[in-house]
Amino acid sequence: MSAMPWPVDPPALRKLGESHEAVVERDLLATLDPLGRRGRVWIAGLASVVGCALVAWIYQLVHGLRVTDMGNVVSWGTYMTNFVFFIGISHAGTLISAILRVTDAGWRRPITRMAEAITCIALLVGASMVVIDMGRPDRALNLLLHGRFQSPILWDLVSVTTYLTGSFFYLYVAMIPDMPLLAKHAREHGRSPRLVRMYEILSLGYRESPEHRRLLARALGAMAVIIIPVAISVHTVVSWVFGMTLRPGWHSTIFGPYFVIGAIFSGTAALITAMVIFRKAYHLEAYLRPEHFHKLSKILLALSLLYAYFTLSEYLTTWYGGTEIDVRLLALLAGNGTVGAVFWLWATFGLFVPIGLLLFPSKRSMGSIMTASILINIGMWVKRYLIIVPTLETPFIPAQNAGITPHYFPSLIECTITAGAFAGFVLLYILFSRIFPILSIWETAEELEEVEHATVRAPVKMPGRAMPAALPLLLVAVGLSVLSPWTTARAQAPAAPASTTHIDLKRTTEDKEEMLVATVTANGRPVAGAVVVFSVLRKFGTMALGEDQTLSDGTAAVKYPHGLPGDSHGEQTFSIEVRSPPALAVPPVQVILGGAEPVRITPVEVPRALWSTRVPLALVGTIMALLLCVWSTYGFVVSQLVAMYRLPKEG
Amino acid sequence: MYMTIQRRQFLKAGMVVAGGAAAGMLTRSHAATDESTKSSGRPAGEATLALTAEGDLVLASAPSGASSHASDEARRGVPGKKWVMVIDLAACDGCGKCSAACSKSHFVPADREYLRIFKMQDSADTAPYWLPRPCFHCDNPPCARVCPVGATFKRDDGIVLIDNERCIGCRFCMAACPFTARSFNWSRPDNSPAAEAKGYSPEWGYPRRVGTAEKCDFCADMAREGKLPHCSGTCPMGAIYFGDENEDAVTNSKGDTVQLSKLLRDRAGFRYMEDLGTQPRVHYLPPADRRYPAPGERGANTLNASKGATQR
Q1: Which of A124, A505, B82, B113 could share a disulfide with B245, CB 3.0–4.6 Å?
Q2: Is residue B243 located within the same domain as residue B303?
Q3: What's A36's DSSP letter?
Q4: Sequence-distant (≥ 6) Cβ neighbours of residue A268 within 8 angstroms
Q5: Looking at the domain assignment, is residue A604 inside a domain?
Q6: B264: domain CATH number?
């Protein structure tokens, strides 16, 4: 447990002789008081931006994605940038809350809930961005009906769903001890009975008792541990949407960790920004104190250095290696054009300036930390844009070679929807803070109990009761019904020509060489000096084999086409034509001869491959095993909550 | 005819809900049988809806699922075939007739091309040449790998197709294709009456649907009938060969049918960007001893300059 003198009680309240807990309770519940005029104006403003975005989305649904500036070359843009950005922001909750909880850092207490709420809300907004980017959102159900586990999008779907579920659990479990307080507070302040009822239901009958505490600690401990790998997997998988392609700038082995670090980096910056705003808006100066900002700023500094390191290793190796396509990408990304200017602006103001602001402890102030955080937030959006768009502008075969100039700049609709996403994020965050105190009351108060009465950390055990992986994992079993046997349409010899000329075809061996011998007879007598053209039928035409003049015995011969496959029975249709003399000329006669090498038809069984309809077993097995681990832990957490609910009620 | 259209509109209206799926499937397969028996007077395209293979009535598998999907036949391809294309870069003069014929027959809107001609020059010291790029129908297709719903799929006969009745429009395939071979229906398509009348199959890709991806389909329906794809059949230089790899023969518009293995061996055939490992089904013959003015030379063709304005 931290021995920090925390929280420092507001001196004015101290005088009244109130207990610490009472002060904390009152201060933090005060954040739920009805909003003033300014607050209401803010909410109305944000809601109208969200409304505009909804109208823009409906417009897009009606007219198709043509209303964006995306095209067949640059086929992803702002929406995907938003998706990566918001999923990145969602990592705030994991780092601060889970890592600090697992490492038992006492100072985390007033900020965990803010972080966890960012996670949940950012995930909702981020997931909605994918739906907005889809050409056919009405077919989203196909992901369940026909989902292919070979696609990183399915990995995304599964991991984001798992993360979202886990984040809501995690946020909720940590809120349970506040629920009875909230119910009491709402009742006393004459709030709607429905709200009171909701708090009561959510409290699961929690009260301060050793048994309740023990169950809560176990649930929270398990959640804090499991949510860390889940969060890492989420942003790894998001990076793999890009990393698994063959595109320059995307197909990078460090993309997983690069994105994870970037996510935690932007998430921490978002958390600091939120703390600054709420501190001022809800007068929480006594709780969100400079030392919190200082501690977080150290984490932010470490992350910004890490991000700079990853950026350097990514681009330096690409540049030094200097393959043609990489050089072309870097020329666009860091060159003289607009994109290059944006890149260097990002590197300066999104990375170096924040590092400078955070580097020297003596120079670190609330103002500089806040400036750094906001710059990082903007910068990380820009960076995601710089990851997505320039790569798409650099296809292997330059579009310029076909007279096409790839270009992309967010359209008005895209800007409106993006503004709506940000406004929606802030709005949901404010609304959350209107219903639940944004600072955890019980955890903040807990810090005051200086005694060894500290909570016993739940031993992190794997659950005794496994819950079936509940995700709707629908694998499309492609029933391969038996192919109807294919029979090559055998060319039939056309009806004998009216002429009396007759052609006979044989395959013989002369001087150890296999020959195709045609015998031309007219009125039963061999014809000498006739030019015979040999060819063999293929699907789209006749392949010439050669021509020969008949000898006195009426035979003409060409080499037998060795190695040329026949049909499945080894039969081939030859086409024989007598071209001259004109008197004897006959249209091509088709003759079927056997004995050719039968066509080699590759087995029709669909392999288990990344591209096929059948999923490789190792892949689906790994995914299922990971899901089972995570969801059974969720099951364990639920079992603890159920046990809590079943404990004897007070009174 | 009237019945068919009515049924299609019925489906289009999204009235077939999952609840009635089982019953619906039964009635639908019966309906298909009835139609196929009286389909003689209808356009050729309707025949595939009746699921006939080479004239045999194979109605074992009607379109499955509650939503309409590509028939099994269109998903599996022509049994025993492995379609392959060879493009002779020494013969291509960049005239663009292949692309025009393709666009015309597929009703391709002006903002895209299935077959795009690039003006290439590998280095300053090497001669420029034209590179016609259809879809490569890779044997290890990056697009089919990443498709989350199996809307793009590889058939047994080698063709990679898109089912625009299943596509969710995520455009991952477009990002994954290293050759930018795919296009997207960004706006609501303006399907011609002819396109509407033929009815949809992934084998020809129209009528188009908004918010779905599309690309060169190797003229899967033409190959089935033993006809060369439009690009190959049109090329005035005979530069585009098409055939069946199993038969070891390819044919061009001049009627030259040549042994595939011999052609590739003798002319040093190669596949574009072999190092990416996608294993294209389109081979190129190097632009050695060209029989045309190279790009930039006197009398050479030029790219359509208006493209830049309409295509992105």
Answers
A1: B82
A2: yes
A3: -
A4: A92, A95, A96, A296, A299, A300, A303
A5: no
A6: 3.30.70.20
Domain membership flag for residue B272: yes
Q: Is there a contact between A139 and B168 if contact means CB atoms under 8 Å apart?
A: yes
- Torsion of the alpha carbons at A434, A436, A439 and A444, rounded to the nearest 10: 140
Q: Which of residues 382-401 of A touch B (CB under 8 A)?
A: 392, 395-399, 401
Q: Are residues A107 and A185 in the same domain?
A: yes
How many Cα atoms occupy the beta-carbon half-sphere of A12 within 13 Å?
2
In this model, does residue A121 exceed pLDDT 50? yes
Q: Do B312 and A600 touch (CB under 8 A)?
A: no
What is chain A's mean pLDDT, rounded? 86
Q: Do A543 and B170 touch (CB under 8 A)?
A: no
Q: Does position B23 have pLDDT exceeding 80, yes or no?
A: no
Contact B146/A152, CB-based, under 8 Å?
yes
Closest to A33 measured CA to CA, from A190, A161, A160, A252: A190
Give me the mean pLDDT over the A472-480 stretch. 32
pLDDT at A478 over 90: no
Of the listed ranges A463-477, A592-606, B93-107, the least confidently predicted one is: A463-477
CA distance A212 to A445: 17
CATH classification at residue A524: 2.60.40.10
Q: Verify that B52 and B112 share a domain, yes or no.
A: no
pLDDT of A237 over the 70 cut: yes
With respect to residue A611, please indicate whether it lies within any of the assigned structural domains: no
B258 touches chain A (CB under 8 A): yes
Closest residue in B to A392 (Cα) is: B175
- Residue A612 sits at the chain B interface (C-beta within 8 Å): yes
Task: Provide the shortest C-alpha distance from residue B38 to chain A (in Å).
Answer: 23
B150 inside domain:
no
Range of the domain at B269: 83-137+220-310
CATH number at residue A63: 1.20.1630.10
Residue A188 shares a structural domain with residue A117:
yes
Range of the domain at A547: 501-593
pLDDT at A418 over 70: yes
Radius of gyration over alpha carbons of chain A, in Å? 36
In this prediction, residue B43 carries a pLDDT of 38
Is residue B110 one of the residues assigned to a domain? yes
Q: Determine the distance in angstroms separating the CA of A402 from the nearest CA of chain B, rounded to an integer.
A: 5
Given a contact cutoff of 8 angstroms between Cβ atoms, the answer to whether B310 and B111 are in contact is yes
Q: How many domains does chain B have?
A: 2
Instruction: State residue A543 phi and psi, 5-degree precision.
Output: -95, 120
Question: Does A17 score more than 80 pLDDT?
Answer: no
A142 and B146 in contact by Cβ < 8 A?
Answer: no
Please tell me the predicted confidence (pLDDT) of residue B60. Answer: 34
Asked which of A438-447, A518-527, B5-14 is least confident by mean pLDDT, the reply is: B5-14
**Smallest CA–CA separation between B230 and chain A, in Å?**
13
Q: Which of residues 222-241 of A touch B (CB under 8 A)?
A: 241
Q: Does B247 touch chain A (CB under 8 A)?
A: yes
- Asked if the C-beta of A606 comes within 8 angstroms of chain B's C-beta atoms, the answer is yes
At A224 the pLDDT is: 93
- What angle do the packed helices A78-89 and A210-243 form, to 10 degrees? 150
A210-243 vs A366-392: helix axis angle to the nearest 10? 40
Percent of chain A with pLDDT over 70: 88
Query: Residue A257 in 3-state DSSP?
Result: helix
Q: What is the pLDDT of residue A595?
A: 81
Residue A227 has pLDDT above 70, yes or no: yes
Show the beta-strand stretches assigned E in B121-261. Answer: 129-133, 152-154, 160-162, 183-184, 213-214, 240-244, 249-251, 257-259
Q: Which residues of A touch B120 (CB under 8 A)?
A: 397, 401
Residues B181 and B215: beta-carbon distance below 8 Å:
yes
* Sign of the CA dihedral running A169, A170, A172, A174: positive
* B158 falls within a domain: no
Among chain A residues, the shortest Cα distance to B242 is held by A540
Question: Quick one: closest CA in A to B55, which residue?
Answer: A489
